[in-house]
Design goal:
The protein is elongated, with a radius of gyration of 20 Å. By secondary structure, it is α/β, with parallel strands linked by helices.
């Protein structure tokens, strides 16, 4: 019952956010009267196009921020494409985007090219199965065995006699990189399907008997069954206290430090790090960092 209420609560919060985002946007012009330097000093005549590119896991968050930001600055247009973390970082480094959305930390090779990561929130990674699966939870060892192809039938774990169908994200996905790295199985997974978005993973898991996959905590809904890991359910509290280990940083990558960027990019980060920007992140199901 507690798990059901968790899902319903999160689903209700997402619906409320969708209804209220226009209200937030309207409030963007009047809020921000707190800490000096946060959002009070709006650049005069701010205009132009801000280009975002990257993680599909950050689509909902980026779009919510973009809508409010454009309401605050009506002469600014925020353009966003969601093509995966690695592609977004590459776009920033090549000059194709101002900011790269990434659900993983930067690689040393990317840092060497001048990429700088700016954490904006934290996202949990949820392991889910199709709703008919009778398994409620796994140990990390069992999860590793499943993804490495050592466990191939749910009956081996006390479940129904049904083949395990392993779903995951495509190569270059930030969520996939974090998931495999945290479990110590980078480039060792035996995937049946590699899908290009978190939504696609959840849709395929929900409709495939025996399927298992991983998605962002903020998008999970009642179409799938979420598994506990080592007896711990994924939540903001369990991620913050470290009892649930699967989480990923959400970062916005720039080429060079924020203070080296143009006025428009700096204004964006002032908003994202401000109270309103972080409140939106929290209400959308992400873990705020400020």
């Amino acid at each position: 019952m507690r798990k059901e209420f968790t899902y319903l609560g999160r689903l209700f919060a997402v619906i409320c956010v969708a209804v209220c985002v226009s209200g937030w946007a309207e409030g963007c012009r009047t809020r921000g009267s707190g800490t000096p330097g946060e959002q009070n000093a709006e650049p005069v005549g701010l205009s132009g196009v801000l280009r975002l590119s990257g993680s599909t896991s950050m689509e909902k968050l980026s779009n919510a921020w973009a809508e409010c930001f454009m309401e605050r600055y009506p002469h600014v247009r925020v353009s966003a494409e969601f093509v995966g973390s690695s592609a977004g970082i590459e776009s920033v480094l090549s000059g194709g985007a101002d900011i790269g959305n990434s659900s993983r930390s930067l690689k040393e090779s990317e840092r060497a090219e001048g990429a700088v990561e700016n954490p904006v929130a934290i996202d949990g990674i949820v392991v889910c199965v199709d709703p008919s699966n009778i398994i409620d939870g796994l140990t990390y060892g069992q999860l590793i065995d499943i993804y490495m192809g050592n466990t191939v039938n749910w009956a081996e774990l006390g479940g129904t006699d049904l083949p395990v169908v392993v779903m995951g994200r495509e190569a270059g996905s930030g969520t996939r990189g974090v998931f495999e790295d945290l479990l110590g199985i980078t480039d060792q997974c035996d995937y049946a399907n590699e899908l290009d978005s978190a939504g696609a993973v959840m849709a395929r898991v929900s409709s495939t008997p025996g399927a298992i996959g991983y998605v962002s905590l903020d998008i999970v809904d009642l179409s799938v069954k979420v598994l506990s890991l080592e007896g711990v359910e994924p939540s903001e509290e369990s991620i913050r206290n470290g009892s649930y280990l699967l989480s990923s940083p959400l970062v916005m990558v720039t080429r060079g430090k924020i203070e080296e960027q143009d006025e428009l990019v700096q204004a964006w980060f002032d908003y994202v790090y401000g109270e309103e920007g972080q409140a939106i992140a929290g209400q959308l199901g992400y873990i705020r960092i400020r």
